[in-house]
Amino acid sequence: MTNELIAFSVASLLVSMAPGPTTVVILRQSIRSGRAAGVATVLGNETGWLLWCLAAALGLSALLLASQLAFDIMRIAGAVVLVGIGARTLWQARSPHDPATGVRTAVPAGTSLWGCYRMGLLTNLANPKAGVFALSFLPQFVPDGAPALPTLLLLALGSAVIDLVWYLGIVRLVCAARRLFARPAVRRWLEYVSGTVLIGLAMRLALTSRT
Question: Of the four, 63, 65, 90, 165, which is 20 to 30 A from 135 by CA?
Answer without folding.
Answer: 165
